[in-house]
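#onboarding

Welcome to the new folks! Below is a worked example of what a typical request in this channel looks like: someone posts a single protein sequence, and someone else replies with the predicted structure as tokens. Don't worry about understanding the tokens yet, we'll cover that in week two.

Example request:
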Amino acid sequence: MMEFALFLVLAVALGWPLGHYLAAVMRGAPMRGDWLFGWIERPIYRLLGTRPQIGMNWRGYAGAFLLSNLVLALLVWALFMTQAWLPLNPDGVPNMSWDLALHTMVSFLTNTNQQHYSGQAQLSYLAQMCGIVGLQVVTPVMGLAVVAATLRGLFGGRQAAAATDASVEIDVGNYWADVVRATLRCVLPLCLALSALLSWQGVPATLAAGPVASPVEATAELREQKIPLGPVAPMVAIKQLGSNGGGWYGPNSTVALENPTPLSNFLQQLAIALIPVAIIFMVGPFTGRRRFGAMVFGTMLCMSVASTGLALWSEGHSATAVDIALMEGKEVRLGAEASALWAATTTQVNNGSVNMMLDSAAPLTGLVAMSNMLINSIWGGVGCGLQQFIVYLLLSVFIAGLMTGRTPELFGRKIEGPEVKLLAVLVLWQPLVILGFTAVALAVPGLAGNSNPGFHGISQVFYEYVSAFANNGSGFEGLGDATPWWNLSTAFVLAAGRYPALLIPLAIAAMLARKRRAPESPGSLQVETPTFALTLTGIVLILTLLQFMPVLVLGPVADHLALMQLLAR
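Example response:
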């Protein structure tokens, strides 16, 4: 519990100034570092054929976002399928199959990092550094750019004074400028600093082939073992800071080469939450409504504390925690509570890295992880968490307005039928996709390939699709997931969870910005209050957890009750 308190204090203490810095970066305001970054940014803008001072409407912004994703998708997919013939492959790693390469590309393109491969054995150094790490750097910034454009739209766009006519196109910013500035001025410097700290703690950072060692046990059939190394520290830095989660090694942050010391464990955990927390602190100065930013932060903080507290209790202090079998799959050097804190943090943030086998966690810890991903806005990923929060905010304003007999409006702009229909699509899309694919995987014998046919088997399959849709990437494992079914089905779910959730709120924000703004009065619905924050939290729980209650009961809840029955004997 002390570690959680220290983690929370440092996340807030570091997130506050970083959030204000991010607000200045995303506003394009003059900064002291312009002399340094300007000479790097200007050639990039010329190469992209854009001028950062020229804004875009929401369609142009969304089109640029999709175009950049398409180009990266084709390049990285081709890289994975040809890595055996390319340089920087000292270990002779073969090409990926087309379906595994497709899943891996979509997974990292959507800032998810769900891995159906082991990086140390199935990717070359070039594929890791250019394909994996390249996407890990760029894709979180793309999410941040889209949420910045959405915030601009909610508050009238960059040319708010002209937005009094429905024919006026709202300027939501320049996509290329948003991505370039955030990458160069924020993400890369933070990665450089964290990479140096992790190298100091013993995380490898080399281009040499791994050494060959003799096993300690002389009677073992294995006469020698090749230890895979590589430029691990830079990848670990961006995997945590960018809400990515995909590790150099298959077992992820449980491997001592990725996470060698208690200090490296704490630094990585702090890095996971740093930028998402900073984005929440960015809201106030970026929009000019600091009370609104405080409401967002307070709501997320309350949900985070409740979620983490339940995970720590379940893993370390509940009746099931006394069973020594629960230490299977956990690192003894880290312990149960540190593992539970990591599991809670990485599912509150769309990170997905693991420092224990989640399949071995207490059933209620698994329930917490699933619930965090279904909500998908407790901090959330870089940008996409706040984007999902905006969806809940708009729905809450509409429902609260109807309940109190007031016209549903946010910041003076009415929320009407077209906007509500788009919000309803997002609300229904989540259960339709997740439950549909879960039902098919469980209904067809042998398709899921899960290691447990009971209640836990339901959790394994459901968790895989929830993690994919939430763009988290962690897994219960216990699945034979390196198959065409899993690769193709989860690739679809990955894309289905990413693009509608980012682009539909942007479209809604632009629709609201084109409406005439009515002056706020005492009769207006006040969203910057604790009462509304409590209402919003209740609506989040109703819209997410209750519609998935049957599968949660059949999975982790039933698994917990079965374990309790065994312990009682």
